[in-house]
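User: My advisor, Dr. K., asked me to get a structural model of this assembly before our group meeting. I'm new to this, so sorry if the format is off. These are the inputs:
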Amino acid sequence: MLQIEGVIKIFNRGSIDEKIALQHVDLKVDKGEFVTIIGSNGAGKTTLLNAVTGSVLVDDGNVVIDGLDVTHLPEFKRGRFIGRVFQNPLMGTASEMTLGENLSMALLRGKPRGLSKGVTKNHQIIYQPILQTLGLGLEGRLKDRVGLLSGGQRQSLAILMATLSLPKVLLLDEHAASLDPKTATVVMDLTERVIKENGLTTLMVTHNMEQAIRYGGRLVMMHEGRIILDVSGEEKSSLTIPEVVQRFGVVDEKLLLA
Amino acid sequence: MLNILTVALLQGFEYGLVTLGVMLSFRVIRFPDLTIEGSFPLGGAITAILIAKGISPLFGVGVSLLAGFAAGVLTGVLNTKFKISKLLSGLLVMTILFSINLRIMGRSNIPLLYFQTLLTPIEKILPKSSLPLILFFFVVILASKWLVDKFLSTELGLALRATGDNEQMIKSLGVDTDWTNILGLGMANALIALSGSLITQDQGFADISMGVGVMVTGLAAMIIGETLLRPKNMWWLSTAMVVGTIVYYFVISLGLRLGLAPTDLKLATGLMVALALCAPALRDRYGINRVLKEAKKRAVAKGRSLG
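Assistant: The format is fine. Below is the predicted structure of the whole assembly, which you can bring to the meeting.
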C-alpha cells in the first residue's frame, strides 16, 4: 500500500547547519499493516511522515501510495488519500468552527467542494452515532465550537476526522504524547479500535517504547536517519523493553524513561 | 438627532458592504488585505466613467463587481503563487490600482450630477427625504449579508473558513488553500468595489482619493461591531459588521454635529478603535464581575476576622 524507496532528505545542504534527516530509507508497508516507528530525537521519524504527506519534499527516492507515485504531488493532492493526526491537538481541528462543520469537512476529504449546504440535517443524523462511539458525550454538542473542547476530546475528534473517509494511509505523529496518561490511554484505545475496525494501513510515530511494543503488528526503530530495526509477527509480539535495549543498545535513554 | 440617525443609517448600510468585505478577508480567511483602498475607488471609477459615457448604470455596477473580484484575485495570486507577503501583495495591487483608476477616469474627478444613475428613480420617489434611499441600501446590505452567510455555510464556504482557522488541517483534507485564499480575496474586493460603485452614484461623483481611509473605517466598524455584539457564530459576526458600521457613522456624525472639525475625523476614528480594543481589558479590570468578586473577598475576610 505504501512504499518508501531510497528516500533521502538533507536540510540546509551545503551549509554548516547541514543535517541529514533521512539517509536512503526503504520501507514497504502492506495493506492493513499497523507499523509503530520509534527512535530518539532527530532520528528522522517526523521527517519520514512529512515526506509521505508532502509537507517535506524529498531530495531523492520515491514515495508510492497504492501504486501511484506521489513523490512530486503537492501536499493538498496527497491529502485525498492520507489521514494525519498531529501531536498538538489544536492542529487537527478548526477551533472556531463547530463539531458538525469539522466532521462535514472531513467527510469531504478529497472530494470537490461545491455550493451545497455544508452541514445538513442528514449529516447530523450520521454524526450522532459516530460521536456516540467515542463515549465522550460529544453527540449532543454538534453545534458547539471545537475550541470549547478539552485536549483529549479534540484529539479524539481529530482521529475521527482523519479516519472518517477511510484514507489509504493513516499517519499518527506522537498523537497521544501531549495528553495526560489517562487521556492518552483513552485516545490510544480509540486509535487501535478505529484502525482495526477499518483495516487501515497505519504508521504511528511514538517516543514511548511501551506503546510501540504494545500497539501494532510491526515495529520499526530509526536512528540518525536510518532504519536500524524492523520486526513483525511473532518476533514483534514477544518483544520486551529490556530485550530491545539488550539487542540494540540504548540508542537514547529517553526512550526508556518515556 | 433624527438627522444624525438617518445619516448614520444611510452611511452604515452603504459602507456596511465594505465592512462585510473586510470581514471576509481579515476574519474569514485571516488575510490582512490592503487591496481595499484600491478596489473601492476602482468600483467608483468604472461606474462614473460608464455613466458619463451614457452606458446603463446597472452595467457599471456589474463591471465594478467583476473588476473588484479581479483585483482581489491579483493580490491572492501574488501571495500564494509567488510567495510575496500578504501585506506587500495588497500594497502592490493598491498602488497599481491608483494609476489604473486614473487611467479609467482620465482625470481625478468625474461629477455625475446631471446624469441618470441607478439611484435617480429611487431619489425621486420622495423628494427631500432620504427614506427611499435608506430602504434601498437596507435591501442591498440585507441581500449581501444573506448571500455571504449562505455561502459561508456551503461546503466551499466551510473550506474558506477553515483556510483562515487552520490552513494545515484543511490542506491535509485535500483542499487547495491557494485557491480558497484567492477566492476569498476576490469575493471581499468584489463587495468593496460594489460599495464604491453605489456610493459614487449616491454622492454624485467619483474621486481618485475616495479610497483613502476606507480600510481603517472598515476595520473600525468591524472592531466596534465585534466589541458590542461579541459574535459567537458566522451569522452574528456578519450582523456585527452592519451594526458596527452604523454605530461608527453615528458616533462620527454626532462628533461633527458637536463641533468636531472634519480634519480631526481620523483622530476620532483612531481613538474609537483604540477604545474598542481596550474594552475587554477594561471590562476585566473594572467590570461588574470583578467588583462583585472583590466585595465578596472583603466580606469573607471580614467574617474571618470576626470569627
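One thing worth pointing out at the meeting: The interface with chain B takes residues 53, 74-77, 79-80, 82-84, 90-98, 101, 104-106, 108-111, 113-119, 145, 161 of chain A (CB under 8 Å).

User: Perfect, thanks a lot.
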